[in-house]
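Hi U.,

Before I forget, here's the chain from the pilot set. I'm dumping it here mostly so it's searchable later in email.
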Amino acid sequence: MPPHPDAIADCVLGAFHALPAKFKPRTLADGRREEDATTPSSSPSPLLTCAALATGMKCLPQNKLELAKGNVLHDWHAEVLAIRAFNRFLVDECADLAKRGFPTQQAGGWVRWRQHGQNALDGERQGKDDENKEDRQPFELKEDVSIHMYCSEAPCGDASMELVMMEQDDATPWTTGSVPEGTGEYMLGRGHFDQLGIVRRKPARPDAPITLSKSCSDKLALKQCTSLLSGLMSMLLRPERVYLGTLVLPKDQHVAHAVGRAFGRQGRMRPVASGYGSRTQKAWRRAGYGFNPFEVKTTSREFEYSKRSGRTTNVTSPAPPAISSNLSALWTAKKQEILINGVLQGRKQFDPKGAGCASRRSMWKAVLDVAGAVGVPALQSEVAGRSYAEMKSSKLLEGRQVVKTDVRKLALQGWKSNIGDEAWTLEVG
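Structure:
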């Protein structure tokens, strides 16, 4: 039986409250307060434990990607950053197990060795080939772990379009016609409320530089098929069971038909849910994937830095309007960081020393360290001595790529890749 949604929210909010003040949005000298969003991941049954949480609400413009070189996050909206933090937590769990070696009875709090994966890796060491290269991950999530997420705001994009409409002077959707690919408005942001159930880029001010980071609704919808694991982590950890079980939203952030449309079996994910060919399903299962939709539940709990918490009913002395916070907090049970503009606080945005623990570069290095500790040459060769683009095209990720391609073709049409930060290599020394 899954935990009560209020208990999930309390677990996360309690972890956030325990953070030092420097991790939290500020009250400005003019009385205005910053707003933010918080999102967690997970719980090992039967006790609830916050494994990772994050706050944040910004992303990197597409024209800055080539400067990132794996050091700057592309997207630090809270939902996305929390999932990255959770992946960082998992690679640290794998690292702890790798240091201890392979007695099969040993396991961490969340992760354990895979007997099947170890056998495959042993065969690899002995020069034996295996047709199913995607089933060589040495680790898996323990069977008694379930994963749940609390979001203080409805995820941006399709799941929150009705809420955005209600904030307008006229909440009636209007007709603007289709927007063809190749125009500046392709893969829409906040506007065009007549078009629902579509892939959108992150919303921003009309005068802001274009970003091709997909909305949190779209990324969460895809995660129902690819698991919460990143591509790098899926080389170490079998994706089976690493799926979100529950998404918890505040009651006034839950529009039932909107979340059903964005995530549900009868919404835009219906082509995936209704079957996509026996050959495709077999390929997904072989690599450890499947369509595993999460359940959306509501809570009365509110985040103290949400948009709503700063409002007042005192019409004679209303609270100053809240402003967006440029500060992001990343917390796991093993690491804590403060980020500004996608890098560590105190560092210039494109300074290599500003790479946080959940950046592409840091995660790649962490996975490589675990691969070295496990001592499997083929696994090491897939994550070392290549460009990031070459690593992402590894044979170990072929199954994951099939899933992503199928979902984008069937359900999330219009998905445009946010490319430009793939040519760099990892310097190991």
